[in-house]
Automatic annotation (TrEMBL):
<dbReference type="GO" id="GO:0006574">
    <property type="term" value="P:L-valine catabolic process"/>
</dbReference>
<dbReference type="Pfam" id="PF00171">
    <property type="entry name" value="Aldedh"/>
</dbReference>
<dbReference type="InterPro" id="IPR010061">
    <property type="entry name" value="MeMal-semiAld_DH"/>
</dbReference>
<dbReference type="InterPro" id="IPR015590">
    <property type="entry name" value="Aldehyde_DH_dom"/>
</dbReference>
<protein>
    <recommendedName>
        <fullName>methylmalonate-semialdehyde dehydrogenase (CoA acylating)</fullName>
        <ecNumber>1.2.1.27</ecNumber>
    </recommendedName>
</protein>
<dbReference type="InterPro" id="IPR016163">
    <property type="entry name" value="Ald_DH_C"/>
</dbReference>
<feature type="domain" description="Aldehyde dehydrogenase">
    <location>
        <begin position="13"/>
        <end position="477"/>
    </location>
</feature>
<dbReference type="InterPro" id="IPR016160">
    <property type="entry name" value="Ald_DH_CS_CYS"/>
</dbReference>
<comment type="similarity">
    <text>Belongs to the aldehyde dehydrogenase family.</text>
</comment>
<dbReference type="InterPro" id="IPR016162">
    <property type="entry name" value="Ald_DH_N"/>
</dbReference>
<keyword id="KW-0560">Oxidoreductase</keyword>
<dbReference type="GO" id="GO:0006210">
    <property type="term" value="P:thymine catabolic process"/>
</dbReference>
<dbReference type="GO" id="GO:0004491">
    <property type="term" value="F:methylmalonate-semialdehyde dehydrogenase (acylating, NAD) activity"/>
</dbReference>
<keyword id="KW-0520">NAD</keyword>
<dbReference type="InterPro" id="IPR016161">
    <property type="entry name" value="Ald_DH/histidinol_DH"/>
</dbReference>
Length: 498
């Protein structure tokens, strides 16, 4: 019998009463491995009521207790690391190594949340005026909401609810309906870590359930990761409803290759950064910008890409897995065809890729275009597949102008042995996350994930100090006490920390 994914409401995993269920399929076989419900209105209302009730006591919980909850949670996540990765691989198709990386990056954010006491410290100035002091407190907002995508079902939920809850809020999570088993396991372990009833709710579904989070006044914030059109929808509707919104969207990430770079390092890094995870990540390198004589390296890059073999997650030799759905495969292959029609030179063609024993998988092989122009659709649109486009320019200045003219600004990198070129690039480039001889510059959790332009809609980014600000409000107090009110009293010989 097919597993039916439960909802998590008021501290309990319960089967939904919904009449609408969505199949969860193995992208390597099309086998239905589970069914996920579209939560009913009553179930969404119950989740909200539970979150609101829990907030009243959770916000008063000492910050040290919240930190210890996160310590216990990260320990459990580490203990069950490989188990979570197996669940993740089975429903996303990611290779086991890639799935383990997904889980680990989430664990790092939980470890960051365990430092919440120092992150919530306010500010104090004594004697702002004669006999008057001012100080600020960082306080939670209330119920927060999050909507997460299919491509990182462990990392991105863990970007959101641990920090929000550590700040004293409660949280309603709506994971992707395409891979809900991983977030369900994350919630189970959160309960095992000692999370109080109601601080986390997990609702499943589609647009109706997202709109509930967007429209319900009691939900104060919305965190989202996904495509550009949906991110724009989330941002507009959420802010129209007077909510705080952080909406992470698409990308077109460029890697600039200078002729003085280490050629083999460039080729090795470009291969992994472009087709790893089947290109289904917003920080994938999808454009290689070859400067000057570096353009001669493209033939060697093409040969390296031809040697990359996708396959099932259980096969240790698989470089990456299938795309998430037949629809995703169809779109990527149609974009490849469009690139050919527009005149780009297709050096490596990943269409109609076959994996022995898995004839129904959503396979797309490594694909590499040369001679790409900025007006081509394969350059202008996010393909979200294992497709790399090469553009040639003569100078670093041309490369910077090209990248800055692109409407996306999630990540970029430069490979060079020249420090002055690297500094010029990092200083002048209009992109939020920059790598120098690093292809995918995703920051560690004590920094923030800082996409720019059409890659992000909002003001405060995920994790790091910015996330703490996103999930809290600052209260400033100005106080005066009169010395004439001091009365003598006897000594207190005990220490009371309760």
């Amino acid at each position: 019998m097919t597993t039916r994914v439960p909802l998590f409401i008021a501290g309990e995993f319960t089967q939904s009463n919904s009449q609408q269920w969505i199949d969860v399929t193995n992208p390597a076989t099309q086998e239905v491995i589970a069914q996920v419900p579209c939560a009913t209105q009553d179930e969404m209302d119950a989740a909200l009521a539970s979150a609101e009730k829990a907030f009243q006591s959770w916000k008063e919980t000492p910050v040290s207790e919240r930190a210890r909850l996160m310590m216990r949670y990260q320990a459990l996540l580490k203990e069950h690391h490989d188990e979570i990765a197996e669940i993740l691989a089975s429903e996303t198709g990611k290779t086991f190594e890639d799935a383990k990386g997904d889980v680990w990056r989430g664990i790092e954010v939980v470890e960051h949340a365990a430092n919440i006491p120092s992150l919530l410290m306010g500010e104090t100035v004594e004697n702002v005026a004669r006999g008057i002091d001012s100080y600020s407190y960082t306080q939670p907002l209330g119920v927060c909401g999050g909507v997460t995508p299919f491509n990182f079902p462990a990392m991105i939920p863990l970007w959101m609810f641990p920090l929000a809850i550590a700040c004293g809020n409660t949280f309603i999570l709506k994971p992707s309906e395409q891979d809900p088993l991983t977030p369900t396991r994350l919630a189970e372990l959160f309960v095992e870590a000692g999370a109080p009833e109601g601080v986390l709710q997990v609702l499943h579904g589609g647009k109706e359930q997202v709109d509930f989070i967007l429209d319900t006044p009691a939900i104060r914030t919305i965190s989202f990761v996904g495509s550009v059109p949906v991110a724009q929808y989330i941002y507009r509707r959420g802010t129209d409803n007077m909510k705080r919104v952080q909406a992470f969207a698409g990308a077109k990430n460029h890697c600039v290759i200078m002729p003085d770079a280490n050629k083999q390092q460039v080729i090795n890094n470009l291969v992994g950064a472009s087709v790893g995870a089947a290109g289904q990540r917003c920080m994938a390198i999808s454009v290689a910008v070859f400067v000057g004589k570096a353009k001669a390296w493209q033939s060697e890059l093409a040969e390296a890409l031809k040697g990359v073999k996708p396959g099932p997650w259980q096969d240790k030799n698989s470089a990456y897995g299938p795309l998430i759905s037949p629809q995703a495969k169809q779109r990527v292959e149609s974009m490849i065809s469009k690139g050919e029609q527009e005149g780009a030179q297709l050096l490596v063609d990943g269409r109609d890729y076959k994996v022995e024993g898995y004839p129904d998988g959503n396979w797309v092989g490594p694909t590499f275009f040369s001679g790409v122009k900025p007006n081509m659709s394969i350059y202008q649109e996010e393909i979200f597949g294992p497709v790399l486009c090469a553009i040639e320019v003569d100078t670093l200045e041309e490369a910077i102008a090209l990248v800055n003219a692109n409407p996306f600004g999630n990540g970029t990198s430069i490979f060079t042995s020249n420090g002055a070129a690297a500094r010029k690039y990092q200083h002048e480039i209009e992109v939020g996350q920059v790598g120098i001889n690093i292809p995918i510059p995703v920051p560690l959790p004590f920094f923030s994930f800082t996409g720019w332009k059409n890659s992000f809609f909002g003001d405060l980014h995920a994790y790091g100090k910015q996330a703490v600000r996103f999930y809290t409000e600052t209260k400033t107090i100005t106080a005066r006490w009169f010395e004439s009110d001091i009365e003598a009293s006897g000594p207190n010989m005990s220490i009371d920390l309760k």
